[in-house]
């Protein structure tokens, strides 16, 4: 059965199912370069829904917010402890940080609009959101094996234009290419490594599997295993194994307040 929890802080129970995330969901350095560039010259950065600290820049002062004790406990020792708080109620003054970031987390917030407004309130500069475009999720071959995954996942993601509208000011949207050896284990990270989905630990680190009935997921995995063993997957999708990057649904939204300079005062 699905493992999401109604009435939880977010739409997925990280207290019960977040253990081990840090082993599968690591900072990919190529994606990190784009995120850190979007932060501009910010010296103080708020990371909202910080999890175990992926993508936090090492050369700036970072304050992290994370409501799950399980996720906070997985932060590496070289990172500052995260504050127990939610995006919807950030315990900071207006314009108190140079920039704010949230990476692959907005879709799990109980009230994304409120969380985005809070980020805009506390940041005097960029608000940087790494997320997925729900309308582009079905470009990934996994949709052919388990379309229920897309059906479950698509409504979770706030539309990109909605994110831009809530944040206001001026904003840009960048399509983020996923490298073939991406070390951040979201679903599209394995576009060229289909065998990874046979590993339960990989699937457990992707929250969307918790929104699909177990028997449906098991049948999809069994079909994938069969197609890998028979060569059917490679006959259909094998070219992906040598494709250096995948342009799928990963997006980077960078929003600046009206009249903001790219330089931090």
UniProtKB/TrEMBL annotation:
The entry's keywords: Ubiquinone
Residues covered by the Methyltransferase type domain: 46-123
Pfam families: Methyltransf_11 (PF08241)
Highest taxon, organism lineage: Bacteria
Record protein name field: Ubiquinone biosynthesis protein
Lineage, top ranks: Bacteria, Bacillati, Actinomycetota, Actinomycetes, Frankiales
